Amino acid sequence: MRIVDHPILGKIKERKKVFIEVDGKKIEAYEGEPIAAALLAAGIRVFRFTAKEKEPRGVFCAIGRCTDCIMTVDGIPNVRTCVTPVRDGMKIKTQVGLGKWEQK
Amino acid sequence: MKEAEITVIGAGPAGLSAAIEAAKYGANVEIIDENALPGGQLFKQIHKFFGSKEHYAGTRGYDIGRKLLSEAENLKVVIKLNTVAFGVFDKNKIGLFDQKDILISKPKKIIIATGASENPLAFPGWTLPGVMGAGAVQTMINIHRVLPGKKVLMVGAGNVGLIVSYQLLQAGADVVAIVEAMPKIGGYFVHAAKVLRMGVPILTSHTIIEAKGEKEVESATIAALDQNWNLIKGSEKELDVDLICIAVGLKPEADLCRMLNCEFTYVPFLGGRIPLHNEDMETTIPGVYVAGDVSGVEEASVAIEEGRIAGISAAESLGYISEEESEKERMKCKNRLKAFRIGPFGSPRQEGKNKVFEEYKRRTKNVK
Ligand SMILES: Cc1cc2nc3c(=O)[nH]c(=O)nc-3n(C[C@H](O)[C@H](O)[C@H](O)COP(=O)(O)OP(=O)(O)OC[C@H]3O[C@@H](n4cnc5c(N)ncnc54)[C@H](O)[C@@H]3O)c2cc1C
Ligand code: FES
User: Fold this and answer.
1) Which of B311, B368, B301 is nearest to B337 (CA)?
2) Comparing C-alpha atoms, which of B149, B155, B164, B156 is closest to residue B217?
3) pTM for the structure as a whole
4) For residue B59, what are the contacts with CB-CB under 8 A and spacing of at least 6?
5) For the CA of B98, the nearest ligand
C-alpha cells in the first residue's frame, strides 16, 4: 500500500510511472524506487523460496545487508531487490533456490 | 582530480561532521556512501530531535541531514554515493565498488563512520515474509512511502521500537501492541507517552514466541515472562497481525575495522564489540579513526560531536592545524559530549566509553 498522504511528510511527490513485469504480471512502479518497494506496494511479500526447505522469504533489512530479498531480474539471479532501482519493462521472477542464469 | 588526503566512509551525521571539520582546515576530503542518499539514519527520522541547540534540537532528522550536506558541499567535499567500501587492505588501500567499476582509494587518513546494523531475533517463524527489522520498516514508510503491512506487532520498547511504532501510526497502520521482554520500558518517556496516548498497549515482561502463517505472517503468538525470564504457561495470546517489527537493538557495523585488524573490546551497553579508540577517536591502527554508532551505538548528537573530533584529529595529523588549536577545538566537543552522557540513559554510556579509552591506553602502551 502506498502512503499517499502523510501528516508530516505531506503528499507523495509526483514521480514518473513505469511498468515492471513480476512473474508475467504487469505492475505499476515509480522511477527510481527499489524493486522491493514496488512489490510491497502491490501487496507482494514473498520474493523467493529457499533451496532445501523451499521456505518463503521476503524483505528483512531493506538496506542490502541480509540478501533475503533476492530475485531473478532480467535473467540475472540473486539480485538484491531492496537496493536495485526499477526500470521500465524490467522482468522480475520469484526465485527458487540459487536461481538460474537465463538467456536474455 | 587530486587524490583525497582523507577518505570518510559513511555519510551519516558522524561522517558528514568529520568531513566538514577536516575540510574547514583545508584538508582534501572525500566521503563514500553506499546509499543513493547521504545522511545515513537521519533521512528516516521524521520526528523532532531533542538535546541542545548545538545538536539541532527541535529540528527534524532529515532537515539536520540536509544542513550537514550543504555545509559539506560548500566546503568542496567530494561525495561519492551508490559506492560501497567493500574492504581495506595494507592499512590505506580502500576497495570501492560504484555499481560499475572497482576503484582503489589511497588516502593518508581514514575515518570510518559506518553506523550500526540491526540485531535479529530468532523464534519459530522469524524467517517468514512480514517479519522485518524496525529500521527496514522505517526505510519503507518514510523514504519509499510504502506500508509493508497494516496490523503490526512491535517487538522491543526501546527508543527505536517506540519511535517506529509512532511513525507506523502516522503512516496509517494499526499498531496492535508493543511487547518488551524487560520489566520496564527501555526508551524515553516522551516517546512512550506518544504511543500510549494513541491507545497502543505496551506489554512489558512479554515476548513473541511464534510467527504463524502459510507463506507470510498471518498472526503472532505472544506470552508473559516471569522474573526469571521463563514463559508463564497459559499466558499465550494470539494476535491478528500481518507485520512483525523487530527492534531489539543495534550493533556497530565494524567489519572494516576488523579487516584492518583494529583491536576490540566488549561493552554491552554500547552495542557489543567496539573497536578500541582514544578520546581523539583514533583506533589502535594509527591514521585510522572511528566516529558515531560504529564506535559505540548512541545518538545522532553524539555522532556529530565524535565526527567533529575525528575530523579535527585527522586534519591535525596532516599538519593543517596546530596541536594547541586542535586541542582547544576538541575540548569544546568533548565538553559537550560529557554534558550529553549524564543521567540514567547517559552515564552508563560514559562508563562504557571510559572502559574503551582505558583499554586503548593499556593495549597501545607497549607499542608506542
Ligand atoms: C528510529 C530511530 C530514532 C532515532 N532518534 C534519535 C533522536 O531523536 N535523537 C538522536 O540524537 N538520535 C536518534 N537516533 C540515532 C541516530 O540516528 C544514530 O545514532 C546516528 O544516525 C548515527 O550516526 P552515524 O553517522 O554513526 O551512522 P549512520 O547514520 O547509520 O550512517 C552510516 C552510513 O554509513 C554507510 N555505510 C555503512 N557501511 C558502508 C560501507 N561499507 N561502504 C559505504 N557506506 C557505508 C551507510 O549507508 C550509512 O549511510 C535514532 C535512530 C533510530 C534508528
Ligand atoms: S532485504 Fe536485506 S538485502 Fe534486501
Assistant:
1) B301
2) B149
3) 0.90
4) B48, B49, B67
5) 1
* Residues in contact with B103: Cβ distance below 8 Å, sequence separation at least 6, in sequence order: B83, B95, B96, B97
Inter-chain touch B216–A56, beta carbons under 8 Å: yes
A66 in ligand 2 pocket by Cβ < 6 Å?
yes
Please list the ranges in chain B whose pLDDT falls under 50.
Answer: none
Asked if the C-beta of A47 comes within 8 angstroms of chain B's C-beta atoms, the answer is yes
Q: Is A40 in the pocket of ligand 2 (CB under 6 A)?
A: no
One-letter amino acid for residue B282 of the chain: E
Give the number of A-B residue pairs with CB atoms closer than 8 Å. 86
Q: What is the pLDDT of residue B65?
A: 81
Q: How many angstroms separate the CA atoms of B368 and B264, rounded?
A: 18
Cβ-defined contacts of A22-28 (< 8 Å, 24+)? A22/A92, A22/A93, A22/A94, A23/A92, A23/A93, A23/A94
Closest among B211, B83, B148 to A36, alpha carbons compared: B148
Residue B244: its chain A contacts at CB < 8 A? Answer: none
- Quick one: which of B26, B213, B223, B9 has its CA closest to B109? B9
Q: Assess contact for B62 and B35: CB atoms under 8 A.
A: no
pLDDT in tens, B208-222: 999 999 999 999 999
Residues 54-73 of A with CB under 8 A from B: 55-65, 68
